[in-house]
């Protein structure tokens, strides 16, 4: 029996269980069974670490903020397609996303965070962008943050699509991995104000 998947009003599968993993788990290769969609795989990213000198000065490597999950309502730890996060407006996302209006970083007191994209095979092409956490409507919401992350991945893929890489499985191109295949699972604090997106790909 086939099931129609409605992203705006999804039904809750009886086998839908939480399969939480941090970005670190994704780097180590979390099992594919964590996703309901069988051809969805986590991207094995390397985690940003500062230089040895900076580590010695700060003396702290452990993240201090919990990961921020991005999910359709009723689908825990499954993520959302970045193309939807990029293209849809605030109202549509509020209908689709679990906790879309939550002010997810208001408790931290941070004014901005730094997003690092480290796609496998493209680590030499640094993508580091500052994300402001205060918006005209107040502290940034989960949906607003997810949209900004997706916008950055869109620009990153636009820039990298003609760059070569030895990591053929993860090659960014129209014939390889394109932006419309990306899924944003969560956003994790990896060091101080540095954050990375936990990303999956629908092959």
TrEMBL record:
<protein>
    <submittedName>
        <fullName>Uncharacterized protein</fullName>
    </submittedName>
</protein>
């Amino acid at each position: 029996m086939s099931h129609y998947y409605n992203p705006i009003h999804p039904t809750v599968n009886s086998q839908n269980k939480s399969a939480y993993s941090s970005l670190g788990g994704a780097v180590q290769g979390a099992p594919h069974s964590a996703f309901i969609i069988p051809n969805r795989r986590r991207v094995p990213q390397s985690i940003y670490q500062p230089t040895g000198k900076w580590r010695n000065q700060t003396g702290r490597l452990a993240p201090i903020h919990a990961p921020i999950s991005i999910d359709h309502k009723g689908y825990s730890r499954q993520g959302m397609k970045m193309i939807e996060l990029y293209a849809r407006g605030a109202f549509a996302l509020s209908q689709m996303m679990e906790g879309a209006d939550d002010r997810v970083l208001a408790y931290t007191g941070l004014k901005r965070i730094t997003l690092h994209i480290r796609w496998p095979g493209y680590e030499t092409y640094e993508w580091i962008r500052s994300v402001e956490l205060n918006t005209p409507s107040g502290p940034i919401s989960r949906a607003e943050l997810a949209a900004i992350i997706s916008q950055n991945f869109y620009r990153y893929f636009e820039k990298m699509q003609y760059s070569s890489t030895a990591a053929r499985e993860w090659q960014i191109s129209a014939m390889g991995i394109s932006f419309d295949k990306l899924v944003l699972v969560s956003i994790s604090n990896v060091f101080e104000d540095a954050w990375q997106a936990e990303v999956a790909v629908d092959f």
